[in-house]
Amino acid sequence: MAFLKKHSFKLAVLALCAAMGIYLFMTYVAKPNEPLEVLQAAPAFQMKDIDGNSVSLESTNGKARIVYFYFANCPDVCPPTTFLLSEVQDKLREQNKLGSKAELISITFDPERDTPEAIRDFAQRLDAEFDGWHFLRGDNWESTLQLAKDFGVAVVKEKDGSFTHMNVITLVDQEGQIRKWINGSQEDLTADQIVTELNKLL
Q1: Total tally of structural domains belonging to the chain
Q2: Residues spanned by the domain of 58
Q3: Among 145, 135, 202, residue whose Cα is nearest residue 171
Q4: What are the 10-residue block averages of pLDDT along the chain, 202 residues in total?
Q5: In this structure, what are the phi and psi dihedrals at residue 168, rounded to the nearest 5 degrees?
């Protein structure tokens, strides 16, 4: 009894630490990955890649997809987010999932200025490669902006020809359902976090 009285505070602290340890273990280690809910059907599209090949939502079904809208002349968020996705590409390749189980799709808002050559230069400067990653361009910016909006990405074309847009990374499952929108401008966002979310679809 005297021991308990003398050390009651220490024992209380130890008990609290033990309880916190159990909580953290159950929350972050033992708890299985929560499945991602279906948010909406991804809108259908069909566009050409920089080699002239036709790519559509339907043609990429059967694989989990990361869809990102950008434009090569973007002065702020598009280059760093594309570089982040290049790190995602590397991690998927290390896991032997790139191309076979998962793909990346980048669609330009600006098909008139973003020629295949301009897109290839943009991608290569940011360590993006073309195995398992489609860089697509539509026939005109009007239809591409509508597609982006249908994907849930707000965008406006400015008078100077640039675009103001949400910086959104969209996860699409194998059946063509949007399962998650990720804010690509989060300061603490990492490639590992994106891959973890994508793997929930696999």
Answers
A1: 2
A2: 40-199
A3: 202
A4: 47 40 40 78 97 97 98 96 98 97 98 96 96 96 96 95 96 98 96 97 92
A5: -120, 130
